[in-house]
Amino acid sequence: MPSMDTKPEYQHYIPQFLLRNFAHQYAPPGKSKAGKSGRRSRKNKMYPGDLVVNSLSLTDPFSLDECLVKRVCGLENMYENPAKPVNIRPRLEKQFAEFEGRASRIYRQIVNAYKNGNQDVWLGRAEKDVLRKFMALLTFRGNQYYQRYNVDSVQEYHEDDKEILQAYMSKHGFTKPVDVWLQGLEKIIDLDMDLDIGAKDDEEDGENWEQRIRESIYSPIAEMFIEHMSAMYMAICTPASDDEEFILTENCYNVTEGQTTAYYDSRTGKHVTLSPRFHMFAPISPRLIIVLRSNLLPDPLVDADPECKWWRQFERLLFFGSQYGSGTRSILEDLPIRKARNNYMDVVNGMLAPRHGWNQQLGMSDRFHFTIFQIPTRHVQTINGLLIDHAFHGSRIIFDRKDLFLDLMEWYLTEPWDD
């Protein structure tokens, strides 16, 4: 634990550069936002001009409030490693700061492209990989994973993988489950994902990095990371209507879309719930969101080739159907998105074909064309509804415009959901 002389450090699990996209300048009640009294509100410790976000507090009773960007979506000393001297700033925090800097520049490219009226954005392979890894890290470093592993001993850990975790800790000399979590975060940040010679396609850069991460960290974290990186593709979306926005929840990066199935595990004597990961979500701003979509769901260009469509449907039945039932569908099955185009494939007669002169070798100079897809109201509502459904894992919902948020909540509370 930190010493009495060590000031607790507030560490964000949602980066401030993303929170700022939802922020505005604080104006005390009764003053315009341009008003500059220079006096701080005693109640909430905010100065005029401070960056704040609108939020719905989920503590009882629910209330609408404003929160300082620098004091929301984080925890004090979240990455504190008890095994290290308290006067040394944790290496993990420095790693995150450096990696966030790289990721923030890519996010800025996307935001600026949208603000400039562009309908697409080009990213290099390295930029794409940094963005994908950063999104995975936002999933793993969130409050849900922290609360899962932040117990004093493995005896206090009550998840289904307790025996596996105990064996891993014993093998590697860890005394607390949180050490396993911290190790996983460090190794993922350090993982070199530059293109391997065995690369297969634009979303699957060979198997060498997969093998390295499996050998380096706790297997459930490793397998989730690999699935996050390889089993889904990335698309950028914006509401088609100007009167709709995306929300941001504290656990949004842990939300997965897929119908939950419950069953009794006779081996353990426990009731277990499982759900397919059809989609995951990463809000960028009130008007932009990154959606990760399973490679096994329909894609117009892939399905234009009958053989590719047959294989996709077969793998879907094999993977999803065998576990959750052959009729299991996504509520975003018809989301109008597709995989990014690239500079080494063309569309010929509605199907993907290698570009003339391509040497059949993937490289770090490859570039990817991401369309900013305009999605209709029902899909915007569905995505926001899923984020609200899981918001109870956190303490607040962040939004931009109050009128649009109240319209969303009215829809959420009154409209039936189609499962």
Q: Main traits of this protein?
A:
single chain; 419 residues; alpha+beta; 2 domains; 7-stranded mixed beta sheet; 5-stranded antiparallel beta sheet; 12 helices; 21% strand; DUF4238 domain-containing protein
List the topology elements.
Elements lengths: L9 E3 L3 H4 L3 E3 L25 E7 L5 E6 L5 E3 L14 H25 L4 E5 H16 L2 H7 L12 H11 L4 H14 L17 H9 L2 H12 L1 E8 L8 E2 L6 E2 L3 E5 L4 E5 L4 E7 L2 E7 L5 H4 L2 H19 L16 E2 L2 E4 L2 E4 L12 E9 L1 H13 L6 E4 L2 H13 L5
Parallel strand pairs: 7-17
Antiparallel strand pairs: 1-5, 2-3, 3-4, 3-18, 6-17, 7-13, 8-18, 9-12, 10-11, 12-13, 14-17, 15-16
Helix pairs in contact: 2-3, 2-6, 3-6, 3-8, 4-6, 7-8
A few lines on this structure:
The protein has twelve helices and 18 strands. By secondary structure, the protein is α+β, with helices and mostly antiparallel strands. A hairpin with a 2-residue loop joins strand 12 (about 280-285) and strand 13.
pLDDT < 50 runs, ≥5 residues: 85-89, 197-206
SS elements, strand count: 18
Mean of pLDDT: 88
Order of secondary-structure elements:
EHEEEEHEHHHHHHEEEEEEEHHEEEEHEH
Helix count?
A: 12
Gyration radius over CA: 23 Å
| Integer tally of domains | 2
Shape: globular
- The N- and C-terminal alpha carbons lie at a distance of 46 Å
Major sheet summary line: 7 strands, mixed
Query: What structural class do helix, strand and pairing data support?
Result: alpha+beta
Proportion of beta-strand residues: 15-25%
Helix content: 25-40%
Protein name: DUF4238 domain-containing protein
Organism: Trichoderma asperellum (Filamentous fungus)
Pfam families: DUF4238 (PF14022)
InterPro entries: DUF4238 (IPR025332)
